[in-house]
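Rotation project, supervised by the postdoc (A.L.). Task for the rotation student: set up a whole-complex structure prediction and record inputs and outputs verbatim in this book. Inputs entered:
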Amino acid sequence: MNDLQKNVLELIENGTLLGVDAYESAIDNQTAFGSALPKGIVQKNAIATSVEDVVEVKKIKKIIAKDFDGVVDIDIADIKACAKTTDSFIELFSSKYEQIKNILLSHQGLKNTVSISTALKSTGGEETVIGMIYDIFTTKSGKLMAEIEDGSGRMKVFFTERAGTDAERVLVDDVIGMKGRISREYMFVDDIIWPDVPASVTRTISDPLSAVFISDLHYGSKEFIQKIESRFIKWINSADRDASRVKYLFVGGDVADGIGIYPGQEEDLQIKDIFGQYKKFEELFETIPEHIQVMVCAGNHDAMGLAEPQPKLPRKFLPTIYDFKNLHLTQNPSNIRIHGMDTGGINVLMYHGYSFTSIIDAVPELRRLGMSEPQHVMKDVLRRRHLAPTYGATVVNPLEIDPLVIKTVPDIFHTGDLHSHAVDKYKSTTLVSSSTFQGQTSFMDRVGHKATPGKITCVELDTRRVIVKDFL
Ligand SMILES: [Fe+2]
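Outputs recorded:
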């Protein structure tokens, strides 16, 4: 390595200049540093021919995200209006059916849909219906069949060989399109049409900004890994190229480890007072640069009950930071639009993920893949357009409009809960299953979760490039 290369390396290691990509470009072509510079920095001085020029670039480098306004819009459900009566659950189911039916009606193959009562009167030939799965059975010969319903009636359906493995994926309470022959009072389904998300253009913003995704901090746990928090704080305050672009930070629940979440939890707690656990999060928040907009929802370990949507964390837990302008407490789940000024912004669906364990258990294909690759269950719920397809997969507040229907197609889908880090893409949606600040616990062993702690995900909003930092 020559002197120039050594100096560039030193500047990068100090966190004061460029990043790995730029370094590699510098090594390849010692005189062309300019081509690797981040947007907005000294484009006209782009050719550096000596170490002095590199040092000059260092002086001009500035924090980018600070120079841009942050814009956050959050859809909030009216949880207070929720009455837990039998009628309200009927209304919840009917809202789920109507919302997903409307999504399905935009599919080409479902233009000539008839109601179940009309299909039952059919004298043969092919019909298309949209039904909610009322029950699933296996016949004596091992074939799958189901009873489906809509507002007009119920009908039994057989899934034929042509429906293939799709039939194995069908769950009770799914709302799906079905195409097949009617014979007597039965339908022989050849095609299953999922509501799914469409493949469309990958949306970006024009400003050179990023969003960071973390979850499952579990303050108060004996297994909390201090090193991860310290490295995260150091990084987000540094002049590192990726850190300086951060404008938005998402915290996907399980902020605290909680109290009495499972039998014997007391033994696993370092901080046995719930207020003390949230105090630790307040201390973390106070280290985050104030130009970063922070969105926080609850998880099943937080002191908010399990019923979803879970309400925002209240003032009593976060009294010191509650009024900070850059703190946006949200429900779980939440649809959050960030930076919606010029290009319409980026839609983020943030859901803690409490339903995922039971969905993985219910779908044979997901069960085979296990709990350590959460991207598969994330794709699965997008295909069904519902965060907890079967009633009982999670606890739900019976609102007039089912809040767990994935109505808006997310650009980024952020979840946690399983503590396994994963990044993937499905159609036009970036999938981020966040990691954790907590090591593997005996509780996680019992529920089959496998932790991969310390991974922080950044998504560049102008390119949708994903960068993962490992702070373990
Ligand atoms: Fe968690």
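Student's summary: The chain has three domains: 3-61, 72-80+199-470, 108-193.
Supervisor addendum: The longest helix spans residues 86-104.
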